[in-house]
Amino acid sequence: MPEYLLDFNRTQLHNYLQAQNQPSYRADQILKGVYVKNYASFQEFTDLPKTFRTQLEQDFALRTFTEIDRVRSDVDGTTKFLWQLRDGLKIESVIIYEKRRVTFCISSQVGCPLDCKFCATGKMGLLRNLTPGEIVEQVLQMKAVSERPPTNIVFMGMGEPLLNYENVMAAADILSDPEGLGFSRKKITISTAGIAKNIIRMADENRPYSLAVSLNAVNQETRERIMPIARKYPLDELMEAVK
C-alpha cells in the first residue's frame, strides 16, 4: 500500500526527495500543491516533471477518503459528511455556516473511549486514533466543496482530541503552518471533555491554540454521572488546569 503523503512532515519529505535524487525545492512545490492549491491528484502538479509525478503516484496516496454520505440542512446549510477511511472505518465531519463565520468541525479519533451518556459516538468505544494526515484531510476535502472558506476550525467531531494529543497537535501545526494551510492559530479550537493533564501539557508547551472545555454540569456528582471521565479528572482539578 502506498504511503500517505499527508502524514509526511517536511523533514520526511526532504528525506524522500533526497532518496529520489530530486532537488530540495521540490518540497515547496509539493506542499504548495497539497495545501494551497488543494490538488487531489498528482497529475495536477504541472510544475513537476511528468516522470516524477508518475513516481509520486506509485509511492504515495494523496487522498484516501471516500465520501459515503453528505447531508445538508435546508434551514441553515449545515452540512455533515460521512467518510470511509482506507481501512474501511468511518468518521464524520461537519461544516457550520453562520452569517459571519464558517466553522469546520473535525474528528480526531474513530469512535471515542469516554462513554459520555449524551453522546452516540461514545457507544462505539475507541476503534483507533486518526493520523495527522487523516485529521488534515477532513479540512482539505471540505474546503474543496464548501460554499465559503472556513473562518474557524474546531476539533469537536468524533473522539477526544486530548487523548490523541501528538497527532492532533501535529495536525494543528500543519493547519496553521504558513507553508501549510496558513490558518490563524487563534481560530483553531481544541474541544475537550476535560483531560486535565494534557490541558497542562498544552500550556507547558506554549501551544497557541484556543481551548474549549465541555463541562455539561456545574457540580462533580452530576458530571460523574453523565461523563465518566470526571471521576479521573474531578472538577476542581480541571478548573485548576484551565487556570
UniProtKB/TrEMBL annotation:
Domain Radical SAM core: 98-243
Reported cofactor(s): [4Fe-4S] cluster
Protein origin, superkingdom: Bacteria
Gene3D superfamilies: 1.10.150.530, Aldolase class I
InterPro entries for the chain: Aldolase_TIM, Methyltransferase_A, RlmN_N, rSAM, rSAM_sf
GO molecular function: 4 iron, 4 sulfur cluster binding; catalytic activity; metal ion binding
Gene Ontology biological-process annotations: rRNA base methylation; tRNA methylation
Keywords associated with the record: 4Fe-4S, Iron, Iron-sulfur, Metal-binding, rRNA processing, S-adenosyl-L-methionine
Name of the protein in question: 23S rRNA (Adenine(2503)-C(2))-methyltransferase RlmN
Organism the protein comes from: Caldithrix abyssi
